[in-house]
Amino acid sequence: MDTLAGSLDVQAFLITFREVLEALLIVGLITSYLKRVGASHFNKWVWTGAGAAVVASFFVALLFQVVLTGFQVMGSEIYLKITIMLISSVLLTQMVLWMADQSKGIKGRLESKLSDILTTGSVIGMIIHAFLVVVREGVETVFFFAGISGGQIDKAITSWGALFGVAVAGVVSYLFFRGAMRFSLQTFFRVTGAMIVLIAAGLLVQAIGMMQDIGLMKSAMPHVYNLDWLMPEHPVDEAHYVREHGTHPLISGNVGIFFKTLLGYSHSPSIEQILAYLGYFAVVFSWVRFKRRVVAPSATIRTEQTVAVRKNGDVSHASDSTEASRQYGQSAAVVRRANWG
């Protein structure tokens, strides 16, 4: 088995599974809401918009591949690869952080938007809404494929990992809406997000390594340590090690290239790569912790306000009851006096 293709399959599976499942879950939430409010006749327009988004995503992939091929012909492929890796790392990170922040209330916001569209009865509005929901995931997938495949989008799209990711996402989505599978969307996005963060960090350090290889970035310490005896990052490095030492490393270079492509592993990283890798995780996890601390007090305040409103409502209700009893007593006394009189 080609280990380079194997690592691409794993990356493609994680990205495709998450993006396709996210799109299917959102489309499923839309159709479920329409069924609940008795507007199922809009479903065909929802799927029309979603289908148009898939076609548009493939068109974007084709256009992107043409541009990448043009850069390869001009001899600027390495610079384009570095740019794509850096941008993909940023976009992957932004996607994970945004979804971690938005996933909890996504259903409410989605239903609010649909309610507005149903109020106007706009078929075009429903098509556009479904199109935008799906095309965002499609374009993101294309860009991420460009990053993990070094610009060979066609190879990523047709990989077993991508195809398997689509199939698994379809099955999970079907079981979820049939009620045969239950899981928290927030937990799902957290778990898959953590995996994608690892890929994003790998793209970042690989881009830094490539810039240092071609002289775009200097290094204060090109080789902090050397683990070629343990696991070289490429079969070529393993062959060099065997020639120099007359023995094989503990772990094959075929395994090393798998982890290099998937997670950005290097058996001899520069100080800048190490600092970037550690700094990346420090920034991401600090941001997540910060957002949780901001959200938690807000939730506490809302809870306290709700309790206060309920207490005030109970007090008002008790006051109203007391006043009603007093008035009833006065009325009864008047009736008794009238009868006695």
Characterise the protein shown here.
With 341 residues, the chain is mainly α. The model is unreliable at 314-319, 321-325 and 327-341 (pLDDT under 50). 30% of the residues are buried. The N and C termini lie far apart (108 Å). The protein is elongated and about 75 Å long. The protein has helices at 3-36, 43-73, 77-102, 106-120, 123-148, 153-157, 160-178, 185-213, 235-245, 253-263, 271-340. α3 (77-102) runs parallel beside α11 and α8 crosses α10 (253-263).
Task: Summarize the topology.
Elements: H1 3-36, H2 43-73, H3 77-102, H4 106-120, H5 123-148, H6 153-157, H7 160-178, H8 185-213, H9 235-245, H10 253-263, H11 271-340
Helix pairs in contact: 1-2, 1-4, 1-5, 1-7, 1-8, 1-10, 2-5, 3-5, 3-8, 3-11, 8-10, 8-11, 9-10
GO molecular function: ferrous iron transmembrane transporter activity
Subcellular location: Membrane
Family: Belongs to the oxidase-dependent Fe transporter (OFeT) (TC 9.A.10.1) family.
Short description:
It is found in: Membrane. This protein is an all-alpha fold and 341 residues long.
Keywords:
transmembrane helix, single chain, elongated, mainly alpha, disordered C terminus, 341 residues
Structural class: mainly alpha
Radius of gyration: 29 Å
Proportion of helical residues: over 70%
What is the number of E strands? 0
Q: How many domains in all?
A: 2
- Following the backbone from N to C, one meets helices and strands in this order, namely HHHHHHHHHHH
Q: Outline, from the CA principal axes?
A: elongated
Mean pLDDT: 80
